[in-house]
Structure formats: structure tokens, C-alpha cells
Amino acid sequence: MSKASEIAQDLVSRIRSVTRRQDGAINLSEPSFNDRARALVDQCITTAWVSTEGEFVIKFEKLLEEITGSPKVVATMNGTAALHLALIAAGVKPGDEVITTPLTFVATANAIAHAGGVPHFVDVEERTLGICPEKLLPYLKEAFTSKDGKLINKKTGRQAKVLLPMHVFGHPCKIEELVTIARDFNLRVVEDAAEALGSTFNGKHLGTFGDIGTLSFNGNKIVTTGGGGAILFRNSNLGQKAKHLSTTAKVPHAYKYFHDEIGYNYRLPNLNAALGVAQLEQLGELLRKKRKLAQSYVNGFEDFSFGTIFTTPDFKESNHWLNTLILNPEFCEYRDEIISICHAEGVRLRPVWDLMTELPMFRDCPSADISTAKKISLRIINLPSSSFLGN
Ligand SMILES: *Cc1c(COP(=O)(O)O)cnc(C)c1O
Predict the structure, then answer these.
(1) Fewer Cβ atoms within 10 Å of its own Cβ: the N or the C terminal residue of the chain?
(2) Which ligand 1 atom is at minimum distance from the Cα of 78?
(3) 10 Å Cβ neighbour count for 218?
(4) From the CB of residue 186, how many other CB atoms can be counted at a distance below 10 Å?
(5) Ligand 1 pocket, 104 CB below 6 A?
């Protein structure tokens, strides 16, 4: 038997045992709906309140404010739109640089480009998979200079306005250190917490440490609205402005169409919000199951010879959106072969995203040394993580 198939067979049997599914396909991340979801969506259809206005959008935002502790939440049609508006609200203008991680889903970098910005990639750390504060600080000192309170890239002459960290797979990155560094360098912080609904750090919800945070409710996330997103504002006035921008900048009036700037059609439809309300009511239960599944993976892989289950120091505070196996470095060359053998057996594992610096449209963007991101990304395999598997 080849090394890859030896590892794959061991993986399949451990995953089937942890998830107690001896046969059939096991997908990466699937949603769970209850009868309440069906009833609320049905209510939208019956009342014909399916579009950009309606009680469920408001209710959904209120629930998110309660869950996250954010003073102002604005629901959007997806997480990418949330990031785009967040960056505009943070003051990103065409030509500005946004300092971010290469180890993320493409939406993070796309949103920067949608705002006219240029992503500037910095390295991550193995411990959390998020931006490494110990590397960020010396890099900012070396690659940038301060002019009239502006942080200017010495090479490109462009201003960096925002630091955009991402909480990978729902695990908190070193957000407090990152926010402190950003303050010292006069950078705003926009947190991509798309994967982190229900995750906290020292009891505070992720996405509320920086100036603005964003969430996603795509079908594979812990809670879904079909497609959806939300922006968490520390400053309610800024949130109010973003909501205005997200609704075509229409000035409220009973029947007149007056728009006072170029807006976006980014509002979350009421139909999607209805699903979201039912899902948020289930959040506690979903989180319990996710945590149970994560613990079962840790136990089930204790004596696994080819890698370790990724855990962070803040295990109890993560939503455990996606469970992760870190292959030992000597086996990472077999990663893709392992994954395809597992797929053939019905166990649908996934590698992590290709780094943003590998994608044609971001290849030439400014970048620090990102050797840790390059090394660790080749070792990551995501394991089936649907909450019902933790039942
Ligand atoms: C899911 C996700 C988003 C947003 O994606 P949408 O599909 O637009 O909701 C953004 N960033 C990260 C890291 C994500 O995982």
C-alpha cells in the first residue's frame, strides 16, 4: 500500500468512527434547519414580504446585536458585500493599501479590490493561523513611514488605512495585540469574522474588537440565510450611514425616489432574514454540537501518527466552524492524493484555500515574507464539520 493510501485509510476509519457514520457520504459542512425555519419562511411567502424590507431583517439585526454585543448591526446580501461596505466605511479610497492575510477565502481580498484598495499581505502564525503580531510590528516599522499621521508604504508611496485580520475556521486570532499595533500605526481595524459567529475571545464576541467587523451566512457557515452577511459597527452613526449606502442611498419617504449618493443594492432580503432568525434561535444548540464534535476529533486522533488536530489556546471560545488536521511536514506532499482517496470513499475532505498570493489577480500585490503561511497551508486538511455530526 502506498503511503498516501495508508494515511487515507487511517483517516477514513477515524472520521467514520468520530462521526459515527459507517457508510454513505460525509460532506464538509452542511446546514441544519428546524420546523421553525420552515414556518418563518412560509410566513414571508404568505404575507408577500420577501424582499428588501420587512420585520425579519430588523429582527435578525436585533438578534445579532444581542449575540455579538455590537451596538449596531447592518444585514447584507452576503459576506463579501459586508466586507466591501465595511472597508468603505473605514475610509478606504481607490489606491489605498489594506494590510491583510494571504491565508483566507478569496472574498477578503476581492472586497479590498472592490473598494478600489490594494491588499498588502503579511504573514500568519502557526498557533492561530491568523496574522502574526510579532512579525507585523517590525514589518510595519521597516516597510512604512509616517507622514502627517498617515502610514505610507516606502516602496509604493500609497497610504495604508486598514488592518484586516481574519479569524480562521472560527478560531480567534491574536486580535488584541493586532488592534494595539494598528492603533499605534494609525490604522483602522476591520475584522473578517465571516467564519466566527458564536466565537469569543475573553468572553467578547469576535468581530467587535476592531472598528468594524463582518459576518457571513453563506450555506457552509455555522448559521446560514442561504446567502447573507452582516456588518458589526462599534460606532452607530457609521453603521447608520452604511445601512443607507446598502439600500441604494434612498432617502426615506413614503413614495418618492430620491437618492443622495451612489449607493449599493446590498440589503439582505426579508426571505433570507426569516431563515436567519430561525437559525440564530438555534445557535446555542449548533455551538454545543460543534464543540462536542471538535472534542471527539481531538480524542479520536490522539494516537494518529501522521498529523494532529488543530487546536488553539482558546479552544472553549471557538465556534469550531471547520475542524482541521495539520499533517506532519513530511507527509504534506501526499495531501492532495490523500484527499482524493478519501473523496472516493465518500469522505469529502478539503485542502485549505490557495494563498491569495498564488492567485493571478493578487500575485503582484505588495507582500511581506509569508513563509509561515506558505508552509502551514500545504499541511492543512479540513474535516467534515456539520453540526449534526456532533449529535
Ligand atoms: C465565507 C467567507 C466570506 C464571505 O463570503 P460570502 O460567500 O460572500 O458570504 C468572507 N471571508 C471569509 C474568510 C469567509 O470564509
Answers:
(1) N
(2) 9
(3) 21
(4) 13
(5) yes
d(CA 293, CA 290): 5
> What confidence tier does 386 reach under pLDDT thresholds 50, 70, 90?
very high
* pLDDT (tens digit per residue) in 126-170: 999 999 999 999 999 999 999 999 999 999 999 999 999 999 999
HSE toward the beta carbon, residue 297, CA cutoff 13 A: 29
Residue 51 has pLDDT above 90, yes or no: no
C-beta atoms surrounding 106 within 10 Å: 14
Report the alpha-carbon distance of residue 289 to residue 323 in Å, rounded. 13
pLDDT over 90 at 53, yes or no: no
pLDDT band per the 50, 70, 90 thresholds, residue 315: confident
Extended beta strands in 97-143, E state: 97-100, 118-121
Tell me the torsion sign for CA atoms 235, 132, 118, 184: positive
Residue 235 has pLDDT above 90, yes or no: yes
Q: Is the C-beta atom of 101 inside 6 A of ligand 1? A: no
Place of cell 485509510: 9
Q: Which residue is listed with cell 490594494?
A: 118
CB 97 within 8 A of CB 91: no
Distance between CA atoms of 250 and 241, rounded to whole angstroms? 11
